[in-house]
Design goal:
Blueprint: E1 7-9, E2 14-15, E3 17-19, E4 26-28, E5 32-38, E6 64-70, E7 78-96, E8 111-118, E9 121-123, E10 129-131, E11 135-140, E12 147-149, E13 157-159, E14 170-174, E15 182-188, E16 202-214, E17 223-225, E18 229-235, H1 239-258, H2 262-272, E19 274-279, E20 286-292
Parallel strand pairs: 1-5, 4-6
Antiparallel strand pairs: 2-6, 3-12, 5-16, 6-15, 7-8, 7-14, 7-16, 8-9, 9-10, 11-13, 11-15, 14-17, 17-18, 18-20, 19-20
Helix pairs in contact: 1-2
The structure holds calcium ion (CA) (2 copies).
């Protein structure tokens, strides 16, 4: 790599599982930029309103483009994923999958809505136009061992479905294997907190990311940061479990980085931190704690 041009990974190069044995499709130096061509989470099987979300091959869903080997990344390091740009396709889709979603038992029938993108809006219907806020739902590194589908968010990232992970955000992922083996996919043109029906506006996209190896930051699970906010995030058996882990991580971060006492940190979270639901549907629900940086003088 020279002259500042970005690398590119084709949407032909995808994985459906995070696995330390996945062969890297690209090797980059820390600080280099990669354009990832991402297939939508349905692996491009939903193209028209008559394409119903039934009989999915669950082994071939939620593809992540990659993996990319980042030179110098070692277990215990943190991979900084700087999301620089997201260019979405002209059309996405939202589906209700039988047996999936927050109210799955109340919505047993498959349902598809094709959603065109026009002038920065997602055209849900003639009467309903949603401003786009694109982000990749899945950002993942290889776990230390085993082969894990990308669908359940874990400490190595995966299907986090947090709309906080948009352009301008740095996603911090803990590194478990040499080179980190990073992949990204599952872009949503827009999504509400919760992603309640189980899918958002699922869409093909190109995601431009700078990958940086951080040798000093030590984390157990992903964190997010923007110019305005610092965020912890976690998953649990229940939303309640997830919220408590994310809150404890935020308290620890305030003690370590801002010199607060434990009591001060807990109280500050009560006064200024928003506990937000990321998603309620990916088996382990996700919560993020959102701290505004502007409160620090
Ligand atoms: Ca997702
Ligand atoms: Ca999705």
């Amino acid at each position: 790599m020279d002259d500042g041009k970005a690398h590119r990974v084709s949407m032909k190069d995808v994985v459906f599982k995070a696995d330390c044995n996945n062969p890297p499709v690209l090797r980059v130096q820390s600080g280099e930029t990669v354009v990832f061509e991402c297939r939508d989470a349905f692996n491009q099987t939903i193209q028209k309103s008559t394409d119903l979300p039934i009989n999915f091959d669950m082994e071939r869903i939620n593809p992540a483009t990659g993996p990319v080997f980042v030179e110098g990344a070692e277990p215990g390091d943190t991979l900084e994923v700087h999301i620089l740009a997201i260019d979405i396709a002209k059309q996405g889709s939202c589906c209700i999958l039988p047996g999936f979603g927050y109210l799955a038992s109340e919505f047993p029938e498959p349902w598809t809505r094709i959603i065109p993108i026009e002038d920065g809006k997602a055209i849900f219907s003639e009467e309903v136009k949603i401003p786009i806020n694109p982000f990749p739902g899945t950002l993942i590194v290889a776990p230390a061992e085993g082969s894990h589908g990308t669908l359940i968010p874990k400490e190595y990232g995966g299907n986090m479905d947090s709309r906080a992970c948009t352009v301008g955000t740095i996603v911090y992922l803990p590194v478990f294997v040499k080179g980190a083996l990073f992949g990204v996919g599952d872009v949503h043109a827009a999504q509400g907190d919760g992603e309640v029906c189980g899918t958002a506006i699922e869409i093909d996209a190109e995601v431009t990311i700078k990958l940086v190896v951080n040798k000093t930051k030590k984390i157990q699970r992903p964190q997010y940061e923007t110019n305005e906010y610092f965020m912890t995030t976690a998953w649990g058996e229940t939303t309640d479990d997830a919220a408590k882990i994310a809150l404890r991580d935020m308290i620890d971060w305030l003690i370590t980085n801002k010199g607060l006492t434990r009591e001060e940190a807990y109280a500050l979270c009560s006064c200024a931190v928003d506990m937000r639901i990321s998603q309620l549907v990916d088996i382990t629900p996700g919560v993020r704690a959102v701290l505004p940086k502007s409160i620090f003088t």
